Amino acid sequence: MDPSEFGTSTIPLQHAPYGPITAEALTNKNAGKVAVVTGAAQGIGAAIAEALTISGATVAILDLSVEKQQKTQEACEFHGGKIRAYACDVSNQDAVMKTFDEVEKDFGPIDILVNNAGVLVQRPLIMSDFDSFWKQIEVNFKGVRLLLNLYLFKTGAPKDVQEKYGSPKDEEYFKGLFKDPPILCGQTCAWLATGQGKDLRGLYIGEKRHLAVIIKFLTNV
To answer: Which GO terms describe its molecular function (predicted)?
Structure first.
């Protein structure tokens, strides 16, 4: 079977083979960079924060409360990393903007954003309530979009976009960022990842930036 027969989305990134991602391999790979990790109180988010610390990044971890992130912070500090925990509801636009401002005040411009925060109500649909369902939408979709938009703006949105829509504090910014709200579907992600669609790459992230998109699917609904 030839993957190229099935379109761009099935073609893997072209890179040289690499070994296991060990602590030694990560050391100082992100030295001097500032990273933000959401949903860092436990699980994948906590592991990513620790790996970024080992790689030399200064890490800002976000979750609903600072207390819940204590173990993550201690694990990162064990490696000698510079880390700070922030309480932030990623589905709340004002909270996200305030937290980003605090991170930049504490550490400087943000270089890396890991949109990890997510919720999943693991109950049969007939037994779940609408508020629980909507919370998933707010965190898993709205939250990701809020953080991505703000990150793109702070890391260098095209000048004409800034002039037209102002800052994320303005209502029009979130209504019309990049002229039409960007929708990243699977095919678009493949174009970005494989280097095709250069105009699209420049529009979203600039020629010198990389964008990793993780699409989470809700199952057992």
So the answer is: oxidoreductase activity, acting on the CH-OH group of donors, NAD or NADP as acceptor
